[in-house]
Design a protein that fits this description.
The complex is a heterotetramer of chains A (276), B (149), C (337) and D (288).
Chain A (H helix, E strand, L loop, with lengths): L2 H14 L5 E7 L6 E6 L34 E5 L1 H12 L8 E9 L2 E5 L8 H9 L7 H9 L2 H13 L6 H5 L24 H14 L9 H5 L6 H16 L27
Parallel strand pairs in A: 1-3, 3-4
Antiparallel strand pairs in A: 1-2, 4-5
Helix pairs in contact in A: 5-7
Chain C lengths: L1 E5 H13 L3 E8 L2 E6 L25 E9 L4 E5 L7 E6 L1 H14 L6 H8 L1 E6 L25 E5 L5 E6 L2 H8 L5 E4 L15 H9 L8 H6 L7 H5 L6 E7 L3 E8 L20 H20 L9 H5 L6 H11 L2
Parallel strand pairs in C: 2-6, 6-7, 7-8
Antiparallel strand pairs in C: 1-9, 1-10, 2-3, 4-5, 4-12, 8-9, 11-12
Helix pairs in contact in C: 5-10
Chain D lengths: L15 E12 L2 E8 L2 H10 L5 E6 L3 E6 L10 E6 L3 H8 L5 E8 L12 E7 L3 H12 L8 E7 L8 H9 L3 E7 L11 E2 L2 H8 L6 E6 L2 H14 L6 E4 L15 E2 L2 E2 H4 L2 E3 H5 L7
Parallel strand pairs in D: 7-8, 7-11, 8-9, 9-10, 11-12
Antiparallel strand pairs in D: 1-2, 1-6, 2-5, 3-4, 3-6, 12-15, 13-14
Helix pairs in contact in D: 5-6
The chains are: A alpha/beta (276), B alpha/beta (149), C alpha+beta (337), D alpha/beta (288).
Chain lengths: 276, 149, 337, 288
């Protein structure tokens, strides 16, 4: 039995027994290799669930949709390891109760799909732990190195050109499971911290704020990168910040549901070489 | 003839230590550069990175942030939180291309009037050497510019 | 025998137009995306694109533009209008969907009160459309009763030649004719046949869908919640759409001087309709998606007798969660059977 | 290039400049300002176009624009009066403006109350809280030509006595023999010396029981009040077509372009803000 069939069967069982009220998974998309999020509430519909190596979107963000978990019923969700880490962070930041989340874990290595064993988030500790060991293989190392070698001026110019494309559609924010604020700082107007206009200054500020708010929280699922209609390498900034946070505070985001958020905690002996 | 460049610098300081230090510098009649506008806050823990961005947005050539030494925070650990935040924010600014020399951080206690005056003077000199923050001024200028197409 | 323009001659044309003070704009690649932008040479164009990632809309209605500049003085306030840069433009290599999108929005921007920013640019632009010879899975002009070679909104229509060496020229308006008179010497007579236009499959039944949307009881249908459940509420569909025209007005500046700007805004944002009191007439994502569809296919045609969709398919193509107008209208077509 | 095929008009986004000549605190957080045009051309345009029910966009440069009605009547066009509650960025800036300060105004926009059609009829005005200003514009427009109308009844309620706006005008109306004023406050909102009614507007309205014969009703208030008042009016026998109300939505342009104020197919800024109850009942109720 394929993993897809196994998971369909499991979804059917959970839904018919009432163990979960909904399964959030992947369904067929518009084109052959597109998969779209689907929400299954009836055991009769589990046949619509698809699982293959095109299932890339991190679905964890849907769990914090307004009202979804407030009835304290359980919800099942298809997640890759990054998605599982996202659940840990959401739980650590008190956005959801991890016990309400039933995980259908899977991963793709070398184009091969494999199931991840476990139901609740803590059972995936090994899988997640290994991420910490072999620091996530980030695709665009080349570009990162290129940027790091630039002078500050060149870097400024590089990012300005990238951010100039930004149209402030906020797809990066909306696609990100970590951007759950009911009112984002860019939507606050008293005071108006960030210019809402999508001119070069407004775009620059927005992208700095977004990256800062995700520092030490990003799981590098790539939702922002894929959502961006103008192809700004957003994930690259997030990755860079993850590397910084790892180096400075030995912190990898989403390791457990009780992990303290890195910027809401401290150690007395944190490095402070830059402080005069 | 163009006027010599005088940097505009914004300082965000905590009221219990650095502001008191500034006070001490004043009452001790220490001279320091007049380029710094001080904004007093209850604690470094309150100094959001948004403040630094706002200062740059409004045309500052440099920003400095200062508070109590570790262990001395009036609120026991506001400055420890601030330190982590600055660490990350500083790295981010660096990666985005804002030279770290433009944003400086320090611990200055209520007793360190001399350190305050020296710090202000040295930062002002550093920023003066760097010159106006032209790249950011360009961004700010764009907000005033007419549409291009 | 008809007039043709050879690709080889295009650079001469660009030169000629530029010499006449005309800004030449067309589909190009810029920093990893494709857009309509001003060019120096014809070699910058990429006519091989199905259509650019970003629509032609931003040439007439940019994502942000200053409208007014203010200066507050002791006894008076000066308001200075910031008009778009003046000067003729030729948009060479538009697509039929993009060009018609502009014509669709004309009545809206001219509805009793004329939007000077929009119309100054409209008035100074010549749109030269190239009929499509290829389409992708998301193209849907035919579903909206248009064709890859529709002429709505265009001043000149070019049909690619079968041999790939150029285009057959059809001047549609006086402005188009005037623009091509300037390059008359680079045109030639030829009997070359035009290539077959792209075959775009009809994806939904527009008439049936519209009829369904017009029934008041369907406003409260469960359908809206189901179809929009995965919508994440970003604005990429509305911002890439050639016909979405909603905007925000924002002031930037201080007590003494600053700029009032017109920025894109989107019905997918909760803040779009939120009252200061906190009351929000469209408080859920399903209500906002319903508004988008209703507006395009029910309210807008009710006012201006034309659907506010030109079938470019960018909404579906770019959607992070694979939604879009096509899917919604396909589902509605099924419901209305 | 070729001749301009599109007409050009004055810039529709460019506001007129107005001077605050007087201001008055009405209730906690609620203020009325009287404004005068600096430019006679703007004033002339206003005089020619303003009719009761229309609204404007009041603004402070640097903060933005905010939509509310013109609270002064069409019979007094030398100035504009507006009443607003300080609640957001723009209204805070307006509240901070002092007599002599300059603000911006765009408008008047929207449709109006067709008061010619009310000639010879009895008028019933029903209003709640901060929604008296739009009603007040109609009330004075009618009282200034009192002889053209029949009986005039005003039912006005607020949460507390302090929340009643236009207190001096309420006194004036109370003393007039040709106006019947029914004042009420919500239970618990009365002061020790409150001599008027206590109860919610719909209840008080039913008690007052104005006759629907030859009568036009104008209601303005928070959505919940309108909802229940419409039910009460129905009970009293009013025809939906003789009941007028105003809708208010978030607006930016005020001229039918920016796309946010519509309720169903109706653009409140262009086709409103004045609607009959019959028209409102045809709109999708969920989007109100």
């Amino acid at each position: 039995m394929s993993i897809e069939q196994q998971y369909q069967a499991r979804a059917k069982e959970l839904l018919s027994g009432g163990a979960v009220k909904m399964v959030i998974g992947y369904g067929k998309g518009t084109t052959g290799n597109r998969r779209r999020p689907i929400f299954i509430s009836s055991p009769d519909d589990v046949g619509r669930l698809v699982l293959d190596d095109s299932c890339i979107i991190n679905l964890s963000g849907y769990l914090v949709s307004e009202g979804l978990l407030s009835d304290e019923k359980r919800v099942a969700v298809f997640l890759r390891p990054e998605g599982i880490r996202a659940i840990n962070i959401l739980a650590a930041e008190s956005q959801l109760d991890a016990d309400q989340i039933v995980i259908f874990g899977f991963d793709v290595n070398d184009n091969e799909l494999r199931a991840l064993k476990g139901i609740h988030v803590e059972e995936f500790a090994d899988v997640i732990g290994s991420i910490r060991e072999n620091n996530p293989g980030f695709a665009d190392k080349e570009l990162l190195e290129k940027i790091e070698k630039m002078t500050a001026q060149e870097r400024f110019a590089f990012w300005q050109e990238e951010f100039a494309k930004c149209i402030k559609c906020y797809a990066c924010r909306q696609a990100c499971p970590m951007c759950y604020c009911r009112r984002c700082i860019v939507d606050s107007n008293q005071p108006q911290w960030v210019n809402t206009s999508s001119h070069s200054l407004g775009n620059f500020e927005w992208n700095i704020v977004r990256a800062f708010h995700l520092s030490g929280r990003c799981v590098e699922c790539g939702n922002c990168d894929r959502a961006c209609p103008v192809n700004i390498p957003l994930r690259l900034i997030n990755h860079k910040m993850a590397v910084e946070v790892l180096g400075a505070f030995d912190h990898v985001a989403g390791m457990s549901k009780t992990q303290e958020p890195v910027l809401a905690s401290f150690k007395k002996d944190d490095s402070e070489t830059f402080i005069l | 003839m163009s006027e010599p460049f005088e940097p505009k610098i914004i300082a965000f300081v905590c009221t219990y230590c650095t502001y008191a230090g500034a006070d001490l510098a004043g009452t001790s009649r220490l001279k320091y550069a007049p380029n710094v506008r001080i904004i007093r806050l209850p604690c470094t823990g309150r100094i959001s990175p948004m403040f630094i961005l706002k200062a740059l947005q409004k045309g500052a050539d440099g920003v400095l942030v200062s508070g109590c030494h570790p262990g001395d925070c009036h609120f026991t650990h506001g400055n420890y939180h601030a330190r982590r935040r600055w660490m990350v924010f500083r790295a981010l600014l660096d990666f985005i291309g804002i030279p770290p020399e433009r944003v400086k951080y320090s611990w200055i206690s209520a007793a360190e009037g001399v350190k305050f005056a020296e710090f202000i003077n040295s930062v002002t000199e550093d920023i003066r050497k760097l010159g106006p923050f032209e790249q950011y001024s360009q961004l700010i200028g764009d907000t005033q510019a007419p549409a291009s197409l | 025998m008809t007039k043709i323009l050879l690709i080889d001659k295009l650079d001469n044309c660009v030169e000629r137009w530029k010499a006449a003070g005309i800004t030449v704009i067309g589909p190009v690649h810029r920093a990893n995306i494709s857009v309509y932008a001003a060019v120096e040479h014809a070699s910058e164009f990429d006519f091989g694109l199905v259509l650019p990632d970003r629509s032609i809309k931003e040439l007439f209605f940019p994502q942000t533009e200053p409208m007014l500049r203010y200066a507050i003085k002791k006894d008076t306030i000066d308001t200075i209008e910031c008009m778009p840069p003046s000067g003729p433009r030729i948009i060479f290599g538009s697509r039929a969907c993009d060009a018609s999108g502009m014509a669709i929005d004309d009545p809206l921007f001219g509805w009793d009160y004329k939007d000077t920013y929009w119309f100054q640019r409209r008035n100074e632009s010549v749109i030269v459309t190239i009929a499509c010879i290829k389409a992708d899975d998301f193209c849907m002009c035919t579903s909206l009763n248009m064709e890859p070679d529709s002429t709505k909104g265009s001043d000149v229509l070019l049909r690619p030649l079968e041999n790939g060496k150029g285009w057959l020229v059809e001047e549609l308006t006086d402005r188009g004719q005037e623009a091509f008179t300037q390059i008359a010497e680079f045109l030639q007579e030829s009997a070359d046949a035009p290539a077959q236009t792209a075959v775009v499959e009809k994806k939904f039944d527009l008439e049936a869908s519209v009829a369904w949307l017009q029934k008041p009881e369907n406003f409260d249908s469960r359908f809206w919640k189901e179809i929009s459940m995965r919508c994440i509420g970003c604005a990429s569909c509305t911002y890439l759409c050639p016909t979405c025209h909603c905007f925000d007005i924002q002031d930037e500046g201080d007590t003494y001087s600053g700029v009032r700007r017109k920025n894109w805004d989107s019905c997918s944002f909760a803040l779009f309709t939120m009252h200061t009191s906190g009351h929000n007439p469209r408080s859920t994502q399903s209500a906002r998606w319903r508004q988008r569809i209703m507006h395009k296919f029910n309210y807008f045609p009710g006012k201006f007798s034309v659907n506010s969709c030109s079938g470019c398919g960018r909404c579906s193509r770019q959607c992070p969660v694979d939604m879009g107008i096509t899917e919604t209208l396909q589902e509605i077509s099924k419901l209305s059977l | 290039m070729t001749e301009n095929i599109y007409n050009t008009q004055p810039n529709i986004y460019k506001p007129a400049i107005m001077k605050i000549v007087a201001r008055q605190d009405e209730a906690p957080g609620v203020r009325t300002m009287r404004l005068e045009f600096l430019d006679p051309v703007d004033h002339e345009y206003f005089k020619q176009t303003f009719r009761t029910g229309m609204f404007g966009l009041y603004g402070v440069y640097g903060e933005g624009e905010s939509t509310f009605c013109v609270a002064s009547p069409e019979t007094r066009k030398e100035y504009i009066e507006c009443t607003f509650r300080q609640s957001g960025r723009v209204t805070s800036a307006l509240a901070n403006a002092d007599v002599g300060d300059l603000i911006t105004f765009r408008g008047p926009y929207g449709n109006r109350f067709p008061i010619e059609e009310f000639y010879g009829k009895n008028l019933l005005f029903i209003s709640g809280g901060i929604a008296l200003p739009p009603t007040r514009s109609v009330i004075w427009s009618c009282l200034d030509q009192r002889e053209k109308f029949g009986k005039v009844t005003i039912v006005y309620g607020a949460r507390t006595v302090a929340d009643l706006v236009y207190k001096h005008e309420l006194e004036e109306w109370q003393e007039r023999s040709d106006v019947e004023l029914v004042l009420t406050v919500d239970p618990g909102g009365e002061s020790p010396d409150w001599k008027n009614r206590i109860g919610f507007v719909p209840t008080v309205l039913e008690e007052a029981a104005p006759s629907p014969d030859n009568c036009i009703a104008v209601i303005c208030g928070p959505p919940i009040m309108i909802k229940f008042t419409l039910i009460s009016l129905k009970k009293l026998g009013f025809d939906e077509r003789n009941v007028y109300t105003t809708l208010e939505n978030r607006m930016k342009c005020g001229v039918g372009k920016c796309g946010r104020c519509n309720v169903g197919s109706v653009y409140v800024c262009k086709e409103g803000p004045v609607f009959t109850a019959a028209e409102v009942s045809c709109m999708p109720q969920a989007d109100l």
